[in-house]
Prior knowledge:
By secondary structure, the protein is an alpha/beta fold. It is 34% helix and 24% strand. It contains seven helices and 13 strands. It has helices spanning 36-50, 64-67, 110-124, 180-185, 194-207, 211-227, 235-249; strands spanning 9-14, 17-21, 26-30, 57-61, 75-77, 82-84, 94-99, 127-132, 135-140, 143-150, 160-163, 191-192, 232-233.
Amino acid sequence: FLTLISKSENHGEALGETIFLGKLTLNIVLPAEMSEKDCHNYFKALDTLLNPTQSALLSIDINSVELSKTRLYPRYNPETSSIESAPLQLTANSMILINETKLSDCQLQDMGVKNLNAIKQIVEEQSIVFEYPFSEIKCPTSVTTIILSKGSKSIIKSDLTIKVSDKIPLTSSLQEFRDFIPYLKNRPDAVITEEMSVKISKKFTKDDLKIDDLKKLLNLSRLVGKSHNSKEIDDVIWTETSKLYNDLTTESLPAR
């Protein structure tokens, strides 16, 4: 739910990295022993579940065959002096649902490499790549992404990773939030007050948190506050955020 109401905003550079507030890319990891058919059915069920809650949803299969089939990134055609559109040319606040469960170790062809890089660019850096004959242009956007992988973390960087069991109930309860999700998505994130900022700083020092963990906690707290329809982050919201983050990061997963 927090991923669905997230909305990326570029807030400049810090420590050599572009900082995005509000972005919450989710990686759902299915069991390694799950069959290809069951993975496919889960992905389709997830697509069916999420589609009614989004203004636009793009489903992508990431594997050597699909990545080499069709160009996913827009490009300039000098012969027609026009931009050739592509699936990744998404409007702001769209959602991308990625199926990585059939990905295997292989060597991608040129188009496959470009497609994968374009997907990573839009998910990790929140920008659409437009290819020109001797260069490329990156245009900022804001998309929400859920990635489905199998047995290990996605090759695409995510903000949160959760491992699900083989007992995977997918209900239609999100349908009830169809009108509520856009409202919360476009609502300003909850603000961290100066008082809470001091408390968080002390906790950061006391618990010896890593910078990456702190950034994720701060980002998550804004979304938890937003889900409560709160304007500010208080002790209750911060406690709930910390518990949620600890629950989600307790079990480590192998990287691909």
